[in-house]
Amino acid sequence: STRIVLASRPTGAPTAENFRTETVDLPEVGDGQVSLKTLYLSLDPYMRGRMSDAESYAEPVEVGETMVGATVSEVIESRSDAVSVGAVVLGYTGWQSHAVVDASSVRVLDPEKAPVSTALGVLGMPGFTAYSGMTKIGQPKAGETVVVAAASGPVGSAVGQFAKIKGARAVGIAGGPEKCAYLIDELGFDAAVDHRAPDFKDQLKAATPDGIDVYFENVGGAVAKAVLPRLNLYARVPVCGLIAQYNDTQAPEGPDRLPGFFTRVLTKSLTIRGFIQSEFVPELYKDFLRDVAEWIEDGSFRYREDVVEGLEHAPEAFFGLLEGKNFGKLVVKVA
Ligand code: NDP
């Protein structure tokens, strides 16, 4: 079995030196356990957080340990009545070609219902993040304007399409003209704005003539700075991710903007609420699976995957994710 471990903790952007590939023997399959062959590995922005030992909502990966991650795998041996050989399962076995785990830690997928890789994206954690963050915090109403960045990715694309289904105006922010065209032509967003364009701020203004009622925060940084002054009275800001800041090593220089920020929160009666999707799983996961499966079926929900071949390419694909080189939900096809 091949696995990729964390070799050292990054300072700033992660590099190849932070990872190491190892070959190991698989342990025996114990009672109630299954042996898995990884088919797909999900690569997600939160993995940057796990590489660091800064305080966070989850424990870091220890140096020398296998990098964590959600996987879709085939069962090649089973000592559990609940999971049979040949089944395809969703698990959390990380950056490795094989794994032996408790059968209770995996969920059997139905390949007839949807391509199995979607359990890592539109019908998995990222899709649920969008669904729960919008349902509980964003709460878009018909006619309102919703803005989301990283809009061509699995979270952002679902946020915009959710907004459309609720009758709101969806404005996506993405890097480059190709992703922007995709938002409008394929996903049905009302407007798209390129955050890399020199006139980004003007584009954002033109795309949100009535201001912004929901800003689904995926990126932070310069995008958040441009959005903040455009928030309307009673606007809601689900704070989901801050990918523009994950590689930062120190606070930015310049004047202290915190007082100005809080003044705006007060005078515009803003609701700013951070969340980790797992908080809403008990309450909403069933509804999510039912609704999104239905929306995919009736054509009101689309998704795009960016599939990289080979576990050995996981590190470089992950670096690309942090820079916007992926186009759609990034998954590694391992076997
Ligand atoms: P994506 O597939 O959308 O990948 C991240 C994207 O972020 C890149 O493709 C890039 O798109 C964009 N990006 C990177 N750097 C910047 C920058 N400096 N400014 C603006 N955009 C940037 O990722 P996901 O859909 O999986 O995740 C989106 C966000 O949601 C992340 O912040 C992630 O951490 C967060 N998240 C939070 C969860 C929670 O429970 N709170 C759960 C899951 C995800 P582009 O080319 O368009 O710039």
TrEMBL record:
<keyword id="KW-0560">Oxidoreductase</keyword>
<dbReference type="InterPro" id="IPR036291">
    <property type="entry name" value="NAD(P)-bd_dom_sf"/>
</dbReference>
<dbReference type="InterPro" id="IPR041694">
    <property type="entry name" value="ADH_N_2"/>
</dbReference>
<protein>
    <submittedName>
        <fullName>NADPH2:quinone reductase</fullName>
        <ecNumber>1.6.5.5</ecNumber>
    </submittedName>
</protein>
<dbReference type="InterPro" id="IPR013149">
    <property type="entry name" value="ADH-like_C"/>
</dbReference>
<dbReference type="InterPro" id="IPR020843">
    <property type="entry name" value="ER"/>
</dbReference>
<dbReference type="GO" id="GO:0003960">
    <property type="term" value="F:quinone reductase (NADPH) activity"/>
</dbReference>
<dbReference type="InterPro" id="IPR011032">
    <property type="entry name" value="GroES-like_sf"/>
</dbReference>
<feature type="domain" description="Enoyl reductase (ER)">
    <location>
        <begin position="12"/>
        <end position="332"/>
    </location>
</feature>
<dbReference type="Pfam" id="PF00107">
    <property type="entry name" value="ADH_zinc_N"/>
</dbReference>
<dbReference type="Pfam" id="PF16884">
    <property type="entry name" value="ADH_N_2"/>
</dbReference>
<dbReference type="InterPro" id="IPR045010">
    <property type="entry name" value="MDR_fam"/>
</dbReference>
